[in-house]
Specification:
Layout (H helix, E strand, L loop, with lengths): L5 E4 L8 E4 L2 E2 L8 E6 L7 E4 L2 E3 L3 E6 L4 E4 L2 E4 L5 E6 L14 E7 L2 E4 L2 E6 L7 E7 L7 E2 L5 E5 L4 E2 L17 E2 L11 E2 L1
Parallel strand pairs: 1-4, 2-5, 3-6, 4-7, 5-8, 6-9, 7-10, 8-11, 9-12, 10-13, 11-14, 12-15, 13-16
Antiparallel strand pairs: 16-19, 17-18
Length: 196
């Protein structure tokens, strides 16, 4: 994706914990692009995204084919009802996305503050051929996330199906060469879009 955001991708198996902390992220200058992208955690490297501020974004954090991620004590302020604060997706937004090794998706989100407008957390299964799911934790006792009253929804389970070339969010660049199949996040309860 273009736009000047930060991307962490394909970490080396020998890497220790990767920490992104104490930063201020603002719009990458390109609509529909995330200001922080973290993708393809094949080696299960621990990622700590803590104490950051995200403002002026269309899309704050994109977690693509990721596990072993902690988002703690971050502040997200959306400016429009269509803003996405954090998106968890089975799809890697990359030219090889239709051939990647998929990992069990997992994230822990604690002590985060979601304010302003938009959707705090969006769950997307846009690569459904070998999707799998680990543990997803949204808050723990004493470490709750805060959701502002102005948000469109706190948590949205994406209901898009079919080829990723037809996705309305995100719109994938170059999808002609690397489309994947979208399916509902919660396949047991049908494919209607769900909001909390």
């Amino acid at each position: 994706m273009n736009g000047g955001g930060i991307e962490l991708s394909n970490q080396n198996a020998g890497s220790g914990t990767i920490t992104v902390s104490g930063n201020t992220f603002t719009s990458a200058g390109a609509p529909g692009t995330a200001v922080l992208r973290v993708k393809n955690n094949y080696n299960g490297i621990n990622h700590q995204i803590t104490n950051n501020t995200f403002t002026g974004f269309d899309w704050g954090v994109s977690l693509e084919n990721m596990n072993n991620v902690t988002l703690d004590n971050n502040t997200f302020t959306g400016n429009a009802s269509t803003d996405r604060h954090v998106v968890v997706n089975t799809k890697s937004i990359s030219s090889n996305s239709n051939s990647i090794v998929q990992v069990p998706i997992g994230v822990t989100m604690t002590n985060n503050e979601f304010t302003g407008q938009g959707i705090a957390l969006t769950m997307q299964n846009h690569d459904s051929d070998n999707d799998s799911y680990g543990t997803i934790t949204l808050g723990t006792g004493g470490n709750e996330n805060e959701f502002g009253a102005g948000l469109s929804s706190f948590v949205e389970f994406d209901g898009q199906t079919g080829t990723s070339t037809g996705s309305t969010f995100p719109t994938y660049p170059g999808t002609g060469g690397w489309p994947t199949t979208m399916a509902c996040w919660d396949r047991e309860s049908g494919c209607e879009e769900q909001q909390i």
